[in-house]
Task: inverse folding
């Protein structure tokens, strides 16, 4: 796909299983119009940045009270989650802490403070790269382990010089 790929939509209820228990919540947005918009989009795991409505992310508002859109790194899957054998395609986005400095190892990855739920708010996503296809797993632990690696790959990738222009929000970065 020709990156960046823009996706957006209201945050909807997902399958309500797994992700919160896995410790990896994923904000789901509708996948309905994907094939129309991007007919050749591969299923798999991608990375990108997300703009959340500041009202759903109050702690991150500027101290001077000025509203700003917060851009956060994200890892997402588009597809059927073979481990869960979904029959409909979903777009599931895990949002990560801001990129400040490189985390030297996956182990040192900052532990994310769960955000307050933001169902119903509009999520704008800028997909910047492809990580891998979807796999099935023998266990939930194996699945979680791979997602952790994906998160690290996403963060390290987004630190590359060429992406820096996407990380500063000029108000246009993730505009649809
Ligand atoms: P669902 O199956 O409804 O998608 P999840 O267990 O995947 O439920 O949790 C996703 C929800 O959790 C999101 O819709 C959002 O409201 C909330 N959430 C909290 N923190 C995050 C995060 N870091 N990334 C994505 N969603 C988050
Ligand atoms: Mg989800």
Result:
């Amino acid at each position: 796909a020709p990156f960046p790929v823009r996706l957006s939509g209201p945050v909807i209820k997902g399958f309500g299983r797994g992700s919160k228990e896995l410790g990896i919540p994923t904000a789901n947005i509708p996948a309905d119009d994907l094939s129309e918009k991007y007919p050749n989009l591969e299923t798999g795991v991608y990375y990108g940045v997300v703009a959340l409505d500041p009202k759903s992310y109050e702690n991150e508002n500027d101290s001077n009270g000025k509203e700003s859109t917060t851009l956060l790194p994200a890892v997402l899957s588009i597809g059927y989650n073979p481990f869960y054998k979904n029959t409909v395609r979903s777009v599931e986005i895990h949002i990560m802490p801001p990129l400040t400095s490189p985390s030297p190892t996956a182990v040192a990855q900052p532990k994310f403070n769960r955000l307050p739920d933001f169902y119903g708010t509009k999520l704008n996503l800028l997909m910047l790269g492809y990580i891998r296809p979807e796999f099935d797993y023998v266990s939930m632990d194996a699945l979680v382990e791979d997602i952790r690696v994906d998160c690290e790959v996403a963060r390290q990738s987004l630190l590359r010089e060429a992406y820096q222009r996407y990380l500063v929000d000029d108000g246009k970065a993730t505009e649809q």
